[in-house]
Design goal:
Strand order of the largest sheet: 7-6-5-2-1-8
Radius of gyration: 26 Å
Shape: globular
């Protein structure tokens, strides 16, 4: 066999092994509800690469519970082709006697009498052909087919695809609907490099060792191959914990991580971001934005803030430890801290992404002397009761803030400019204690500079969301706050745009 073919085959096996570890590591996340994981599952032949069974009642799926998820993983070493609605019913597309859709239907027939509601996933790094009408309709949030696929007439574009698929399988409408409602199409999934990064983040979060970046050897790949050779393919949490311990893959503090819930807030999509897989529950308000820019400024008050507040108003956040993934605008990171303030009783710590993804959980140790702001206060209009706070951590925003205040004729008594003494940059804040220290000092600057005035504090920030979250937690010391977002995409002239004001009643 030519070297290219051998290489492609091995890369496919490695990718499947990574997908196994990604799903298997969910056994260590309490709220994932995973009971056991099986790879190459005979009972699901056709969609058998990775199978995840859940504890009763299962995981919520559009109003009903799914008892299990079955994944067929198609990894391709290049991007020479793509999927579309016709390819799914062509055996030649996968060089087989049956089509992919027939494979999935075969698995459905095997499983439907032994499982309650379940989902069948096709996962691939290939894209769905952008010219195919179905791609515009597949639900981004869960990869399912849209309701219109089932309800539109057979003369419609979606209806004609439905009928073509149904006739290809040779089944009646009710059986087809029961089958197709379980289909999930996860195309344009991670390439191997990005998926490895995501997998390693997950492993670290659940307390498993992350392989060295400069090593050619990955113990997880080797172990997966060992499982295959030993014909061990079913794992409960206890099974996997025992194996990982024997192989020296456990981090020392893993027992403390077993019952941490991970929740998330998403307001925009990042490349290769999969908050669905990284959290036990999350709120997504991305539909209100074009990229990072809000479709209409009024949506901050009418949709975005109410939706996020409802999500955070959950008594479970007051019970156990929770980690909060903030794939969102800094205004919403601030809002999360504001709603989960220090007096709320919430036990929540922000997850900070960077060179290493980690929950910023303060240890309570004494702050270091070097953890200070470099401060500059510019006095402007003495008759104004408002102040502006400009926080530069990742990069310098002072000129942008001054330009905004001038061009929009925002009258403030003073501008308080803060930058960390450790200098600017994504890694200028060393961890949770450092972030809490700077947040506390920023809060004190607001309090000191506002004195007894009752005006607004305009907050502009280029800083890690974890730091902004901690600042928001000083809710009762901050007074009235106006938050801003920077227009990175240039639709508003690459300047600041007001988002919303807190307390929300103002």
């Amino acid at each position: 066999m030519a070297i290219n073919q051998v290489s492609a085959r091995i890369e496919g096996d490695v990718y499947q092994g990574m997908y196994f570890w990604y799903q298997a590591s969910s056994l260590f996340i309490e709220n994932k509800k995973a009971d056991y994981v099986i790879f190459e599952h005979d009972a699901a032949s056709g969609v058998d690469d990775i199978c995840v069974y859940y504890n009763p009642p299962g995981v919520l799926d559009a109003g009903r519970y799914s008892s299990a998820d079955f994944y067929q993983v198609k990894y391709h070493v290049d991007n020479r082709d793509s999927y579309d609605s016709d390819n799914l019913i062509k055996p030649s597309f996968i060089k087989a006697k049956s089509s992919l859709l027939q494979h999935f239907y075969s698995a459905y027939l095997k499983l439907k009498d032994t499982c309650q509601w379940f989902r069948l996933y096709l996962i691939s790094n290939w894209r769905w052909n952008s010219d195919d009408v179905l791609v515009k309709s597949i639900r981004e949030c869960d990869y399912s087919l849209p309701p219109e696929f089932f309800s539109n007439s057979s003369r419609s574009v979606l209806g004609s695809i439905r009928e073509k698929w149904r006739e290809h399988l040779g089944i009646n409408e009710s059986i087809f609907k029961d089958f197709a409602e379980r289909l999930r199409f996860g195309f344009n999934y991670f390439g191997r490099g990005h998926f490895q990064e995501t997998l390693y983040d997950r492993l670290g979060c659940v307390g498993l060792m992350i392989p060295q970046a400069d090593s050619r050897i990955c113990p997880y790949n080797s172990l997966y191959q060992r499982f295959i050779m030993d014909r061990i393919n079913k794992f409960t949490r206890t099974d996997l914990l025992k194996i990982c311990k024997e192989e020296g893959l456990l981090l020392e503090d893993m027992p403390l991580r077993n019952y941490v819930s991970v929740i998330g807030i998403r307001s925009f999509m990042r490349f290769a971001e999969r908050i669905e897989d990284e959290t036990s529950r999350f709120v997504c308000v991305a539909e209100n934005f074009n990229g990072r820019y809000i479709r209409d400024l009024s949506l901050w008050r009418t949709k975005v803030v109410p939706d996020v507040c409802r999500f955070l108003n959950n008594s479970e956040l007051r019970r156990g430890e929770n980690h909060l993934l903030l794939d969102c605008h800094s205004s919403l990171a601030f809002l999360a801290g504001y709603e989960l303030d220090q007096k709320s009783g919430a036990n929540v710590y922000p997850i900070q992404k960077g060179i290493k993804t980690v929950a910023w959980k303060p240890s309570g140790d004494r702050f270091l002397d070097g953890w200070k702001w470099k401060k500059e206060v510019i006095q402007l209009n003495s008759e104004s009761s408002d102040i502006a706070l400009a926080i530069s951590v990742t990069h310098d925003i002072f000129d942008d803030v001054e330009n905004y205040l001038t061009s929009h004729k925002v009258q403030v008594r003073s501008i308080v400019k803060l930058r960390p003494e450790s200098n600017l940059g994504a890694s200028s804040i060393t961890g949770a204690n450092h972030a809490v220290c700077l947040a506390e000092l920023a809060m004190q600057e607001i309090v000191n500079n506002k004195s007894k005035l009752h005006g607004l504090t305009h907050i502009f920030a280029a800083a890690p969301n974890g730091l902004i979250f901690f600042l928001g937690r000083y809710r009762f010391a901050l007074g009235i706050i106006q938050l801003y977002e920077f227009d990175f995409e240039g639709e508003q002239g690459r300047t600041y745009v007001p988002s919303f004001r807190l307390p929300f009643s103002h």
